[in-house]
Write a structure and sequence with these properties.
homodimer, alpha+beta
């Protein structure tokens, strides 16, 4: 790792430790960097914020978008103390981040009691094989809304 | 569908249409229900809130957790106008929802320009095969924080 890489990863790990010790959530931290500068910091605050989506990466993405006034983080990279769970990984795709650097792995997370690995195994399954009940309800009225979007002249894609 | 199911799904679809027409985001709506009552409503506000994580389901989950003062939605179900993307599906697992009912599919979403299906295909890949650059940086200091969590006496699991 270059000095800059080590510094950004070090900050992500530092956040994971500090905020865990403050009892704000699980031991996870992340920073988002653009042009060699940190634009946001995130940490896990699931239990303190009553928000199961408030993982370090999702929190850092939200903060970065607020700071930069955009819904696209193209040109930015994320450093995270642990491999992103599927929620955070998909959020990284939606946010259009350029790259992801992580320290601990999903296996390490599973070993200390987090469901990352389980959820990774659930995502590719067929609907009917998942641990959670899922039902597809086909409705023409829902299709019609999608068609309305398709032809909408002033839509903003993301 | 029972009358109650049809009513909840109808509300999710109604939200998807109303909020799209108000130019708040993509054509997606969701409601979370407990004991036959709607506890939260969500809609896509990615472009209006500058938040790439603000999909209908994630928004509904965050609202429900705020309304109920909890990070676990056990005992609740979600109705959504479209099959959840991997971010929202993983969020549903983290939130411990009991069941998911959806109308349009990920293929329908792909057909009108959304990346759901692409991201579904990316998630199960090996790190090095993904469209986004991902690097594992092994660091003992990160492992130490996980070990600190493992033995932490007052931790709150989720």
């Amino acid at each position: 790792m270059s000095d800059a890489h080590a510094r950004f990863m070090g900050r992500a790990i530092e956040l994971s430790a500090e905020r865990m010790r403050a009892n704000l959530g699980g031991p996870f931290g992340a920073v988002i960097v653009r042009d060699g500068e940190i634009v946001s910091e995130g940490f896990n605050k699931v239990t303190s914020a009553n928000d199961p989506t408030a993982h370090a990466e999702v929190s850092a993405i939200r903060e970065a978008c607020t700071a930069l006034g955009t819904f696209s983080l193209e040109g930015c990279v994320i450093y995270t103390s642990c491999e992103p769970c599927p929620m955070c990984l998909a959020a990284i795709y939606w946010a259009r981040l350029d790259a992801v650097y992580f320290a601990n792995t999903r296996k390490d997370a599973a070993d200390i009691g987090f469901d990352d690995d389980h959820i990774y195994r659930e995502i590719p399954k067929e609907i009917e094989d998942r641990a959670i009940e899922m039902r597809h309800v086909e409705l023409q009225e829902a299709r019609d809304i999608f068609e309305e979007w398709r032809v909408k002249p002033d839509k903003i894609m993301y």
